[in-house]
Amino acid sequence: MPVKRPKDPIARAILKHRLMTSAELLVLAGSYVQIRRRAEAGMITPLGSGLYASPSLDPFVAAVFAAAKYYPNAVISGLTSLAIYELSDEYIERVDVDIPRGTSLANRLLKVHRVTQRKMEGRCELKFHGQMIRIYDLERTLCESYRLDPAGPLFFKALKRYMQRKRINADRIRKYDALLKTRVLMHIQQELADG
Questions:
Q1: pTM
Q2: Alpha carbon distance 178, 190 (integer Å)
Q3: 152-to-89, 140, 149, 164 alpha-carbon distances in Å
Q4: Spatial distance between the Cα atoms of 148 and 64, rounded to a whole number of angstroms
Q5: Residue 6: predicted pLDDT
């Protein structure tokens, strides 16, 4: 059976794009009152900070998409990248992003960390719920878990989940250990020795 397309142009647009700004919706709606009416009717979901999502999108997923779509200098990091790689089950209140120092970014959906360009090594693109996002690679994310919780439960849960994947990239971890001043490779070697 074919999917029924909504007649409302705003509902159609939000289904197609999955995420839009209030300025983009204003072109279609003609007024903020019309946008608010669609939100009250459940046709669009307000995320805050002038962003709206399809009601079919989980708010966390929508916030990650917003970071990827509207902030090209931002890289998903911290607890958010741990959750995306399924190295952690922590609740994410705001999406963690790293941006280069000297860059300005304020959005209440995001928890912004300003870092030196040199420390933004390990960026990659990953398909997440059908959309490409900028995120640190898996090994960089594991090393970040050590920075967030040195030798604590968050780190050890991430370490065990990483090791269950059976593909340990020691060279990358060694590189990130040096860059971030972490000790992840040592813990991996200890876990392997303990068997």
A1: 0.84
A2: 18
A3: 15, 17, 5, 18
A4: 20
A5: 63
